Backbone:
C-alpha cells in the first residue's frame, strides 16, 4: 500500500476506510469542489468513507451519487493508498483504501445530497494540480500515463 502525507507523531489519526473513483468523460476527469466555511474550497476525487458493511465498490457508487449525481460502475482498482490529512475541523484522519476506475453510466440529480460538493470536470493535468490529496493526484497521473 502506498502512503501519502507526513505523520505528526503528536497526533492520533483516526483510521477511516475509504474509496474514491476516477471517472473520465470526453477527456475530462470528474472532481468535486468542496466548499467550507469562510469561502475556503478544495478539490477531491469523488468518493469517501466506506459505511458499515458496504464494499469499497459500493461506497464509490454511493459517494458519486451523493456528491455529484453521477451514476457510475466501478471497475479496476488503480491503487491502494493511505492518505494522512487534517479534516476541515482539524481532526487527524488516515484514509485507507482503493482508488478505482469508474465508468459513467448515467446521471440522476436526485441522488445528489451533499450541497457543499459541486461536480467539476477538469483536464487530468489540471486535476493533478488542483486535487487536495497527494494520493488522488498520484492516481490521476498513473491513469493518464496508462492511456499513452
Residues:
Amino acid at each position: 500500500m502506498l502512503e501519502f502525507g507526513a505523520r505528526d507523531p503528536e497526533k492520533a489519526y483516526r483510521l477511516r476506510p475509504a474509496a474514491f473513483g476516477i471517472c473520465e468523460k470526453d477527456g475530462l476527469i470528474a472532481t468535486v469542489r468542496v466548499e467550507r466555511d469562510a469561502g475556503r474550497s478544495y478539490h477531491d476525487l469523488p468518493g469517501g468513507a466506506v459505511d458499515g458493511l458496504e464494499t469499497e465498490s459500493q461506497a464509490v457508487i454511493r459517494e458519486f451519487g451523493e456528491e455529484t449525481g453521477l451514476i457510475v460502475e466501478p471497475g479496476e482498482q488503480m491503487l491502494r493508498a493511505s492518505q494522512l490529512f487534517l479534516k476541515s475541523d482539524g481532526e487527524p484522519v488516515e484514509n485507507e483504501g482503493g482508488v478505482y476506475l469508474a465508468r459513467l453510466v448515467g446521471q440522476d440529480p436526485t441522488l445528489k445530497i451533499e450541497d457543499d460538493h459541486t461536480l467539476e470536470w477538469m483536464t487530468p493535468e489540471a486535476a493533478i494540480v488542483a486535487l487536495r490529496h497527494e494520493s488522488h493526484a498520484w492516481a490521476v497521473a498513473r491513469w493518464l500515463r496508462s492511456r499513452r
